[in-house]
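Known limitations

Files may contain more than one protein. Parsers should not assume a single record per file. Below, a two-record file is shown to illustrate correct handling: read the sequence, read the token line, then continue until end of file.
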Amino acid sequence: MNIPEDLLYTKDHEWLKVEDNKAYVGITHHAQNELGDVVYIECEVEGEFLNKGNAFGTIEAVKTVADMFMPVNGTVLEFNEELEENPETINEDPYGQGWIIKIEIENTSELDDMMNAQQYEEFIS
């Protein structure tokens, strides 16, 4: 299973790629594998401040529909609009072109509560 070392992970199977006080957020390879073929993404919170644990959107796959949750408190800066026409990108490249939102992190100390790659691998094992 692909678990990049340079990302942080949540128990809800989101990942963060942190760049200063901003981060890209997506779902992990494990999550997309469990969901199956992704057919639709809904995210209508661009520009909004959301608290950690709040849903920032839903992901619809062949098997199910699931909420996606904010990993930290922050403002949603951008939604990956490429996913509107090509939601399957999440299955094909979950850690690259399959990113879902870009956020501005309110308090970077919250990142300390997240898992590194090794901890996430143990969590899903």
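...continuing to the second record:
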Amino acid sequence: MSTYNIWMVGLLVLLSSAIAPATAQESGDFEIVQARQGEQLLAFVGRKQSVRDISEEVRRKNGDALLFDAFFRAKYRVEQVVYGEYAGDSIEFTAADHYGRPRFAQFEHVMLFVSAADDGAYYHEKYQFYPVFRTRSGAWAACAPIDEYDAEERESVIGPHPIDFGPDAYFPLGELSLAEAAQLLPAPQFRIEGRKAYCVQGNTAEELLKIKQRTVLKARGLFVEDQAPADAAQ
């Protein structure tokens, strides 16, 4: 596969952590009961307004320290709050990324996960996002994954299923050949027409939240789980 196509894979879907996610229990076995104390998680669908590099500002404020991540200040219009409480129309947060400009900035609409610090400032949960699109009913949903970690993460909780996406739910093929596109964006999860791969299967915003709660966010200590009562599993 060419360097460009490898970049395309990363651009289209880097929806999981940079490391393999922790194994999740089957969704019927456990019940999420509380968030981590001292931090407030907010999961929301947002529309990008601005994402600017503040790495130099961060470096100067820390005595010209050597930074291992790039830092960005992002502003998004809040389209839907999926988890937590937020009353504003827009939100600003800081994001850190070891690889440069965060990939969520490549998409117009994304489902993002941010946590509030004690001073009320929001910080992006590193690498955690989903590109999302409108369904024909007006809800938000993500297309099926092509990244192996995201695929494993979803299958451990709720795998992709048919969704009636709107006409704007597609990925442009760019310089991918049709053969490469068919491999990276396979049927029946995608439908390739012309130079676009239309989304056919995916997960709703509520399902995406549950997936992150039971995998990466659980591994980071943001959520704990208690075993469900024995009779609840019957």
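Parsers that stop after the first record will miss the second one. For reference, the second record is described as follows. The helical segments are 3-12, 55-61, 148-155, 178-184, 205-214, 216-219.
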